[in-house]
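Troubleshooting log. The previous run stalled partway through. Resubmitting the same two chains, unchanged.
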Amino acid sequence: MRKFFGALAIGLAAFALPASALAQDILVGHYGSLTGSEATFGQSTSNGIKLAISEINGAGGINGKMVKLVEYDTKGDAREAGAVVTRLVTADKVSIVLGEVASSLSLAGAPVCQSNQVPMISPSSTNPRVTLVGDYIFRVCFIDEFQGYVAAKFATESKKAKRIAILQDQASAYSVGLADFFQKYLQQFGGDVTTRQSYNAGDQDFTARLTAIRGTNPDMIYVPGYYTDVANIAIQARKLGINVPLLGGDGWDSAKLTEIGGKSIEGSFFSNHAAPDEPAMVDFSAKYRDEYGADPDALAALGYDAAMVAFDAIKRAKSHTGPAIRDALKETKLQGVTGMIAFDGDRNTTKDAVMVEVKDGKLVMAERIKPSN
Amino acid sequence: MQTLDYAIPGTRPTQPGWVTFVPPLAVLMLALLMHYCVPFLGAYAERIMTDMAIAMIAAMSLTIVNGFTGQFSIGHAAFMALGGYTAAWCSYYFCLRYWGQTAVVPGTLFGTHQLILLCCALIGGAVAAGAGWVVGLPSLRLRGDYLAIVTLGFGEILRVLFQQTNSQALSKPELANRPLFGSDPTNPGWVFPPGVGGSLGFTDIPKSTNLFLCYLLVGLTFLFAYRLKFSSLGRALLSIREDEIAAEAMGVNVTRLKVRAFMFAAFFAGIAGTLYAHQSGTTLRPIDSGFIRSFDIVIMVVLGGLGSISGALLAAVIITGVTAALLGLTDYGLLPYRMPVFALVLILMMIFRPKGLFGVHEIWDYLPQFGRKGAK
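Second attempt completed without errors. Output:
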């Protein structure tokens, strides 16, 4: 019995200890889904951030101080996200927090950053509500509304597709939100939603949904889901004789998409933060491949950009306190891998989006679309 | 039912009346102590202690079903989520309606928000208990694995239902403009389907959970579970666990008692869910009612020893503490190995102590017996 209490005492003592760091280091926190069903998102982002850190430290750090990363895993769980962000800002006392990918997890972490006056930059939470939490919360990606707009504009104007079916993942706020915005803009551009069907992430059989879609004979199918489901949907759609292109969002972006989807996904399009064949992205890919031996996805690029924006702000900030860094962040004007980054009044970034086409097993840029206003 | 007369000489000594008030007062003192002492350890320690309290309530409530009654329920998180969603819906829309905002002053011992939280916890607990009754009545006639499947299914059904709820109204004017009913995405109702955020999760819930309330409720749950275990009702529940047929032969109404135990457990799960929903740094999501969360609680109960209240308490503390402590692996670049290490600890525990920490006993059965007569 004594053993158990001993273990307990160690456990209790250990969580109170902050991460060890030299006083002159600048601590940057990252929370992400490094394990669990959304692990690839967190790992890509983490790789991007680590690449940025090794670059800045190689160049002598920020004003002579080295940058150190403190990183925790959220397991894709909101409770964990809140706990680790609390640990980052109150125990480890990081200068700035980077994360999360999933909007619902960012919404758990953001209020903690806000109430402790530590700035947080989300690399890729696209839900509009995330930055509305408060004036310490920023993001370096566009929001869902713009992505819906881009896909609708591309379909109706460039591809002359007017009748589009929607197949959404009803378990994911991201997918449902994107479908809502897409539908809204499609109707504005004079298009029509032929049918709106739902699936659950992880489903294996989409035949019933796809048969219903086939019956409405659409010009395109909008599938704002994640790559694993999308690849399966593409395969099953082709088997059912549906040969129209699929259309999607940035959740498609992964090397696994073409790996699983193969020929079935050919000729489909999705909106993304950057296309692999853009000059900035080509440079970034080369660096990334040297370091990790794999091609980066947009999440890695956004993680890199988020870290670079953070370093830039810390460099310009009058002191390393939360309010000073926040004020410096507001003045950001930085050319990142995914475009020009500057924050508007709601701390969102207004950037171009690209439509990417799957062509011969590669992702190539189909069109660059600018914000409307 | 005939009442037993405890005053019969030699059966149990009569105690002075004031002794009745000692345990509740001790609970109150513990809660006050926690509230005033833990903040000195920092905000993160506070957070972990809150997580522990919620886990303790959940684990103790599940002990009533899985431990005392021996019914293997793996849908406990669903009752937590249901209670949490119900309570959060009440408090969120109450605050929005009357104050137009849901901000809470942190560090308050017992303010208006805590009073609202307590009321909402009762509502959440009651709704969860009602759901427990609905689920339990048909399914508790089943035994063993069948009940497990029914409770598992219940959790998954709730999860999908929560996904279908409407988006939440974010401000007072928006709330005023919304209809009560309807699921039109452009102007959704807020009463039914309830406006609790759908798959994005329920956010901006008033953060009124504090350590005082947490440990007050931990203490009260413990007193309830303890009194239950050593009451005639509790003994009847234990007899169901040991042998259902024998219990029935002795005149125990098996189904009715099982349903009752299930409702007690659901009630306290609802309270734990309420505390979780109102905790700072979290959002309530449909996935909180899924089986992964349920298994977290089952692990605590099994680790503590099926039927041991203090075992469940200690297991909740250990599991929450160890998961948090393993975050320290990040300093050594070993963060991805956190969950495997955690699982390994559990496996070793089960190999070396298959009955759990205390088996069916309580912690004081292992401590030196102070002034107890008849101890072995």
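Takeaways: The first helix of chain A runs from residue 2 to 16. DSSP finds twelve helices and 14 strands in chain A.
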